[in-house]
């Protein structure tokens, strides 16, 4: 894409050439010289920007689902959002995370390989404290997690695997299973050090603590579904198509839903003194004329004008007209 100069930049350039601060011949020479850009073959980019955007969309949905799950489980303020999606060598990912952290390793059958969810220790300790009834403040503890702490975290993330499955459902039906729990990233050798992985970073706030959750997805997992990560596939898969079976099932459930219907005969205003003196046989005059239609209320919402009557010896109302909102 060519760079377009503003009028001020053009004037400054002409002024510099006129005053001799800049040599026009030197500019031409520099323009003719070939510009060389360094390319690191160890950091091969296997995913296009389009595919990275698709992965970002998937995990934005995952972040929303995980936010809801944690909020329900911990009963505290939780906010999770996607910060960045990068493709880096696996070795670089390992070097970027703390030596003492939480590493959940998931299998994602039927796809090959395993993905890693790394939880920053600040978030991990906040989760543990909330599970045990605390405020969710981060701890400066530098020692390894106890067996009880590991068990609590494992149980929490085992319950939350459905969030990952639901988020990925738009491109692949996976069955994520928490296979292992590790603390030291040096003990995990998922793929070759120079293998490309996609790292999704989620900024996470739990109670009074904040940190990052990183999701490491090796290329071997995404390789079979790369065609589904294209913009074209997303446009096709999100067209307005109706599942007839689901539509009929939903219609049947809606038809069987029960609603509360009330017909108001009229209203009247009386004093407390009059109310206390009411006795059998007293008559209360309503503010509705005998030939005025009544209001039919469905689940506390006025919906129809009706008239009272009898149907098969039962008190009934007949619908006259639908109420227009605002009347």
Structural summary, described in words:
The protein has 327 residues and is α+β, with helices and mostly antiparallel strands. 35% of the residues lie in helices and 26% in strands. Helix 3 (49-74) runs antiparallel to helix 7. The chain folds into three domains: 7-40, no CATH class; 43-240, 3-Layer(aba) Sandwich (Chemotaxis protein chec), CATH 3.40.1550; 255-322, Roll (Surface presentation of antigens (SPOA)). It is built from eleven helices and ten strands. It has helices spanning 7-19, 24-32, 49-74, 90-96, 121-131, 147-159, 161-168, 219-222, 231-237, 244-255, 272-276; strands at 78-89, 102-109, 114-119, 175-182, 196-206, 209-218, 261-264, 294-298, 301-311, 314-322. The strands form two sheets. The protein has a six-stranded antiparallel β-sheet with strand order 1-5-6-3-2-4. A four-stranded antiparallel β-sheet has the order 7-8-9-10, with no helix packed on it.
